[in-house]
Amino acid sequence: MELLLERDDDEPLDDHFQDECGVFGIYDHPEAAKLVYLGLYALQHRGQESAGIVSVEERIFMSHRDRGLVADVFHRPDLDRLKGDMSIGHVRYSTAGGSINSNNRQPIVVDTAQGGMAMAHNGNLVNAVTLRRQLERRGSIFQSTMDTEVIVHLTAISQRSNFIERLIEALHQLQGAYALVAMNERTVIGVRDPAGFRPLVLGRVGEKGYVLSSETCALNLIEAEFVRDIQPGEMVVIGPEGVSSFYPFPKRGKHLCIFEYIYFARPDSTIDGINVYEARKRIGAALFKDHPVEADVVVPVPDSGVPAALGFAQAADIPFELGIIRNHYVGRTFIEPQQSIRHFGVKIKLNPNRAILAGKRVVLVDDSIVRGTTSRKIVQMVRAAGAAEVHVRISSPPTTHPCFYGIDTPTRNELLAANHTVEQMREYITADSLAFLTLPGLYHAVNSATANGYCDACFSGDYPVAFPQHPEPVQLTLLKET
Amino acid sequence: MELLLERDDDEPLDDHFQDECGVFGIYDHPEAAKLVYLGLYALQHRGQESAGIVSVEERIFMSHRDRGLVADVFHRPDLDRLKGDMSIGHVRYSTAGGSINSNNRQPIVVDTAQGGMAMAHNGNLVNAVTLRRQLERRGSIFQSTMDTEVIVHLTAISQRSNFIERLIEALHQLQGAYALVAMNERTVIGVRDPAGFRPLVLGRVGEKGYVLSSETCALNLIEAEFVRDIQPGEMVVIGPEGVSSFYPFPKRGKHLCIFEYIYFARPDSTIDGINVYEARKRIGAALFKDHPVEADVVVPVPDSGVPAALGFAQAADIPFELGIIRNHYVGRTFIEPQQSIRHFGVKIKLNPNRAILAGKRVVLVDDSIVRGTTSRKIVQMVRAAGAAEVHVRISSPPTTHPCFYGIDTPTRNELLAANHTVEQMREYITADSLAFLTLPGLYHAVNSATANGYCDACFSGDYPVAFPQHPEPVQLTLLKET
Amino acid sequence: MELLLERDDDEPLDDHFQDECGVFGIYDHPEAAKLVYLGLYALQHRGQESAGIVSVEERIFMSHRDRGLVADVFHRPDLDRLKGDMSIGHVRYSTAGGSINSNNRQPIVVDTAQGGMAMAHNGNLVNAVTLRRQLERRGSIFQSTMDTEVIVHLTAISQRSNFIERLIEALHQLQGAYALVAMNERTVIGVRDPAGFRPLVLGRVGEKGYVLSSETCALNLIEAEFVRDIQPGEMVVIGPEGVSSFYPFPKRGKHLCIFEYIYFARPDSTIDGINVYEARKRIGAALFKDHPVEADVVVPVPDSGVPAALGFAQAADIPFELGIIRNHYVGRTFIEPQQSIRHFGVKIKLNPNRAILAGKRVVLVDDSIVRGTTSRKIVQMVRAAGAAEVHVRISSPPTTHPCFYGIDTPTRNELLAANHTVEQMREYITADSLAFLTLPGLYHAVNSATANGYCDACFSGDYPVAFPQHPEPVQLTLLKET
Amino acid sequence: MELLLERDDDEPLDDHFQDECGVFGIYDHPEAAKLVYLGLYALQHRGQESAGIVSVEERIFMSHRDRGLVADVFHRPDLDRLKGDMSIGHVRYSTAGGSINSNNRQPIVVDTAQGGMAMAHNGNLVNAVTLRRQLERRGSIFQSTMDTEVIVHLTAISQRSNFIERLIEALHQLQGAYALVAMNERTVIGVRDPAGFRPLVLGRVGEKGYVLSSETCALNLIEAEFVRDIQPGEMVVIGPEGVSSFYPFPKRGKHLCIFEYIYFARPDSTIDGINVYEARKRIGAALFKDHPVEADVVVPVPDSGVPAALGFAQAADIPFELGIIRNHYVGRTFIEPQQSIRHFGVKIKLNPNRAILAGKRVVLVDDSIVRGTTSRKIVQMVRAAGAAEVHVRISSPPTTHPCFYGIDTPTRNELLAANHTVEQMREYITADSLAFLTLPGLYHAVNSATANGYCDACFSGDYPVAFPQHPEPVQLTLLKET
What we know:
- The structure is a homotetramer.
- Chain A is an alpha+beta fold.
- Chain A folds into two domains: about 10-255, Aminohydrolase, N-terminal nucleophile (Ntn) domain (Glutamine Phosphoribosylpyrophosphate, subunit 1, domain 1); about 275-450, 3-Layer(aba) Sandwich (Rossmann fold).
- Chain A is built from 17 helices and 26 strands.
- Chains B and C meet through helix 1, helix 2, helix 7, helix 10 and strand 20 of B and helix 1, helix 2, helix 7, helix 10 and strand 22 of C.
- Strand 26 (about 480) of chain A pairs parallel with strand 4 (about 60-65) of chain B, so a sheet runs across the interface.
């Protein structure tokens, strides 16, 4: 059986919520596209399926977009052809299925009555289908299934007199999550939706250039200087006149996706003033405080569980040990022997170290349980390596609801926590004990007394941006490119 | 110096007019996409740059489009994913430049208010820029520079009640050349523009299936039966109710591109009742009759010059010999030594056979002279191989005007015949004599007393479909994908 | 069913004897490897499976060898790395099977006590297994199944004092066919076996350089000047002292493979003083003289049958027509629909032109019938295109015996002519008449009164070099690299 | 500037000693090659340049070997072709240079008088050049520059009566380091040299199969059971009669490469009874004991420094923090902007987390300093991220001598520690303090009172196996395949 990394038996190998994208943009730098290339490389954790860069020079928009990792998609000649001192780029997460729509390539680039325009989007619109139907009814055609194409159409049909106003008119019609980086022939624009679901930061680079990035970790590699987070509901326009800031939306509450701190963002990023690594450590400490356990070792499920496990171990004063080793040479597919191997999909990535685990009471720290299948395999592997007890501690509350704001989650039916008590979950994953971080513990860890300022819908079911309860049936013509 | 096949020094290696495309479609066959694949393979001479196939099943449109030859673009898994019993495809000619716009992939596939739609186009609209500007002004966005996208937009914005009427409304706005194959979820449609510039035929395949093809040569490979030529100005709709024929345009004269007979079409095709090979032979005979010469051998410039040379030789009763051998293993690029080789670009394809040529009075038959650079090199090569005399006979009239109906031609300035007398041209290509077929000779060869029924604008400057003499300055934003 | 081009049902698509290789070498040219690259490209018809080049500079041997066509195997960086002013290369024919031994890469390069050495070989040794067994018994190891490795071993174990003498000692032990190009750090060497089965020519290139090539057609492209054929039994050593000629073998009769004139060589080559194209035309004329027929058209099976058909037509005074068109865009594999197509394997390459064939009495000229399967399909295709009569004329005698001198032929059992009368063959291929060139007719066509000077074993069974009637059972360990 | 990952300016990016190889073998399992594939994947850290697998079935040896990571080199069809229930494989480390000799592919496979034979080798022979010269003088030819080819030749020329005795005779002539896995048509053999420089273990797999592996970590993935370490000087023969053990060499001291514990081996492996992760933690603790420091955080240089840093932190009771984040999506090449970026080569892999480092006294734990260039950059990066003090602690003694036993090390001149005092080194890397583990501390950490049982030549200059002080000048003909 040829095994896509994402599939193990009928289960995804990587049983996480999946981030949708990372966006990056450069204004006024002689090697704009090369900096975008490096920025995307540093944002690779936000999307490994495909990568794209668009640059513009003298009204000509040049693009290169393909499947694969940044380092594989772009070669020197590709970057050399991406001329100009303005450029934006995009990385996209790895879908579960084998077949993807290669028309869904970002950044999207179009020609309009007002000239060329490129756009890259991280997030998800909850009214995309409705908008698309409206647009189609007036004669718009769609060449992809991306929300980005909706935004571009709305901008193009606006009758406002300039690009900024047209884009604002388009944005006013959007509901949902979006961190956008857009570009016309003169300006690079960054927008964070009114709720600020997804992060976006502004920096400076070179002598006079500017940079927009999903995360701060991408600034360091290109020697850019962090200026500030783009604010929820803010549109930043970077052009010949410098940086202008617009707040085109009515003021409303901020709802940063709390999962960025739990799993999505790189630990060396700082989002809205809070360092991700530090947040994860505090989360681990809070997890211990909420659910202490007597044990001999604290072992993270690598790599994402490491900072929380460290926080847990330090709070608990239990030794922290790398009792599970991750193989970092994992490719996209693996060939499994016919005489199949137990837990092959997990083993190909993770190997328990019997010397650390044998005879020990082990606290296993992971960041989330989605379907539970991977957790179950890991617990069994750790026990097979001799662990006397396996206590699973999850550095987030139970994920009971799907996300509609840009994260690829299973349906509610597939979410283990949606339909099972913690005790049933413990039994399923065969752990000696199982505990989740509480929502208050989580907010405490991100320096917040309450859920204020965050979206925690996947834990609480409180969706901060309404979406059609009985949405217009989705009957999009699927445009699949193989 | 790395040499793109298309470039020799500053000249194109293959100094021909270049055909734009071939189109192919299948209705109601269980292996529709595979038949389209074979059809495109048989139409490969009409375009070697890229190939694409779209199929539809249960309202889902699947596509696979990429650069390269048909046999390289499609592998078994690609074809297996192109499900459904309706499918259309497209091959595109090889551009001169190294960089192409990969967004310009055909068939184009879009989602509209009325469902999915795919379209492939051979030809060129003379009012495309005007239409595009109008469309953009009403808010349409363009993701490519293809005329096809214009047609699709016009179809999508039509307010008519069904697809056929919307498509007709769109077609009414087009001026220029188009042989279209289109598809929605229920029907496959073929259209030939009112002048019938480009060929398109209808056939039957399998038990109940239909086929549309640019040329008849593609019918044989898939064991399809030729039914008839689509008529100029005819739209054929193939659907569950069978084949319907529409003539949505006012009647006007037919203007089949005469160059199809001279060079573009495959010799085993029959267009509008005239077999191409036979036409070329008659052309060769007419060429001799117009411009006889005393000589020892008639030698074609392979491969395109062969049938005319044969006709010339038979009419002249001079032995026909393959005095120039063509290497058929030519790849896309060749690496030339720094210490460069005379006529490298021609030599990599053609090698004169001294044994046949030495001491002989040679009639060299070629189909056209565009810039003249290749002819000059071939004459010099043949003379260097010992020919006593080199008499060049061209199986078409002097090409003095560019084409605006779908053929890639140089500007008028670059056309040797536009600015030089035949004697000047003879001198330039260093031939002992040079003669072109006359226009009357040409029409006689295609069984026509007059130019009636044909477009001969490249020879005569009589453009049968008007186009803007001072066209709106083209300021399209170039969308280049590398 | 995925169809390797070489297979149609259980039959090879290209039912020809297959040439084994082409060899090429350059001495003393600043761009030696680039010239070898061009030389191999011109010899591509002698082998399409793989290509390799070795160069040497300051005792360092650099090589690049891979599967595929010359234009695909070598890219600029590969050639740039092949430094030095001496270089040799090799192209290898396309095997029927999908899996090949990639260790069988030529030129072979080895390090020996006397320094590095490279060798490329066209031909076949009849005592290779015996020699290999002897070498293995003294401790030699083999990393491939190539005869070339045998020759290299024999050279390495020789106790003679210099490379030339060691090579000669090795050659003395060989029986069979070989045209070799070898190279050590100071010299390039060409050898033609005593019978001269395979061609090899010497030329001059650049200011002071020399070239060795299987055929003269490769000299033209690099602007080399033909000097002379290497003689059977001659070894030419090209080194700092110029060109030396050795005749290390006892004088014996020359036996050039007659099939080079019939099919293998390119028509623009001249072998041992006879131009291949002219020979083929005389062969066609002789074929008519031996087996005249009343007919309306003479049609070649393209491309190899063209010159003989032309000779036939001129002798018969019957019009020569290209009634079958060959598609030159054939790739390595084709995907056949499940609902299979009659004669798919032939149709993918050849298409009959009904306009030329319908109602005509057709003489179909091909160069040989090996298994007969392809001929049968072509005859049926031509008849299906409306031919009134189909008379097959083969421009060689019946091939009744396999070749042991370097040509890939089926076993005797598979050779149609070995087990069937001409009448039975005619019936099998469904022709109205079938006739083969006679051996005397063949020799007459190559200006020879008798078989003297040629190997015609495949027609006559007269094998000029003896080989083990009951050879040591071949028990080579197969070393297959996938 | 296109940057090979291995090069940063004029310095290697990964300034470590580099392991040479990993070996793996399977006896008697129906999916032998697939298990070898998984085994190699788990040994990927021992070599990322190339991978190869050989299997044997009914005397036919099949091989697939290519450049690249295991997951990239092997696809399902490759593995399907590697039939048989015996198979061996090899991974090879990544060389510094861009051009490699693709003839140096392992396992080597040869045909000899006694049948086929395959061999894979981890280590280095100190008398390889001498043996090669002797072999060449008797007529052996070399197609690579690998020591493995020397061993194979020695085996082939032995006059002993069976394969085991011939191999033993060959081994007797070898001096140096070798962990071998070899295979003929009936047996799989594992050998560890008398000093036991490189690890090799035996396991059981499936119902009756056996496995040989460089490290135990590769056993887990294929569900094999660890049986025991192969002993220094032991040859294990696995055949139809089961497992036989031979000790063909005179008894001598064991000298396991101590660097396996410091850096090479995967932390979840256990070598000669000592778990690598635990050893590294003890090393870290010993490092603190030898060189304590007052500090706020202990930060590892990821990934190799992590366990030692953890041991250091626990012993020191200073918080352990992942203050430097490693990007695991690193490809083989990166394109650097022309306007170059400071420390680009290090930054592309490592990013300091300012939130953790700013204002802190940082202990930076790394495993070794080779040239010092990378350490210098990391220290500067950490300081630029705000660290108040940077104290570097190296979990090995200063590396003052090159390795001649299979590890790719720079020459002595390039080893920073060979020519500088610790204080000079500290100054060079710009640290506030620098300290190395002492040799006694190191031995204590691996449970040994003395150097007995280990090779520590790279620290001490005590080379346990003599090698030519003035070796025969190496004048190997370089056989470079690009």
